[in-house]
Design brief:
By secondary structure, this protein is of the alpha/beta class. The protein has helices spanning about 35-45, 60-70, 80-90, 110, 125-130, 145-155, and strands at about 5-10, 20-25, 30, 50-55, 70-75, 100, 115-120, 135.
Amino acid sequence: MFENIELIVYDFDGVMTDNRVMVDQNGNESVMANRGDGYGVGMIRKLGIRQVILSTEVNPVVEMRAKKLNLEVIHGVSDKRETLVKFCADGAVSLDRVMFLGNDLNDIEAMRCVGIKGAPKDAEPEILEIADWISGKNGGYGVVRELARVISDERQ
């Protein structure tokens, strides 16, 4: 299933996090991320697959996590499908060689235009309905690490 994938696009909240946010008395936001997912990003990178985070959120947390993982990030996006199509056209990546890993309704149109649609097991029902691959894990609890293992096993 993953042999021709050149690019994996991750939604951030609900995929790399458990979709919860902590807000302190000053309005600063924090999220929890799984270190295993960070390791999974590295595993996928070693397979030669490009990766990018695509998020509607304009939040320094997204940017900081992407920087830590050495991932490209596009955030503050209102239309994920339009942004993804342009990103792939600019980078000469065919949409049928893209996997989008999403969990919520704002991901659905972008997911519909790619070759492989993936989701954490706690994604919205509409997302699960169109997904080609569903993780055995909830968002924020090792979805990317699991995907890395599956892709690695398939390519060996």
